[in-house]
Amino acid sequence: KHTDYGRYGLLWEKDGSDIGAILNVCALINSELPTRTWDQCFFYVGQGSVFRGREQVDNKMAKKLVNSSIDFCESIPQEYTFSKSSCISGVFNALNMAYLLGDRGIYMDPNRPLAFCEEQTVTNRQQCYRNLTSSLYYLSGKSLFLASEYINSIGDFGERYETTLTLFSNLAFEPVSADEVVRDCINFHGNTR
Predict the structure, then answer these.
(1) Is pLDDT larger for residue 157 or for residue 54?
(2) In angstroms, what CA-CA distances link 47 with 95, 118, 145, 156?
């Protein structure tokens, strides 16, 4: 009943960036949800904060909007670390959805698709990489091998590893045969450091 995206958008219309009001609303919403592994309310708050009221933007403006939304998420008090992390994940998810849907006028640069993530702080970089894997997967023509080429540009082994795991989760949504998965895994393995 509370997972309707439109309801979370109302938080922005009603409370804007009033972090106290949003904390109170999210506490109420989360108390009515079953056990969770992330703060669903703040994920949608982060997601809804990025393109509020903007139909079309260019990549430069999208970067400003995402960074502004991250700043908002970072303003969540320290004792709500879980909520802060979920909010930031929602911000990067909004960017991913805009890339995938192609309805905002922005695109993932095929020469440096993860450049935006590389510019993030160490604490936010992994969330960015993980949220953009589905866009990366489609950019590479649904080829795990080609996607691994992009992932290999990630300097930190831990970030590369986590991003690879998330990339493989895209297979759950694709009608692929076992033979195709084995082939892609062999190709992928041969292409990783």
Answers:
(1) 157
(2) 8, 20, 30, 26
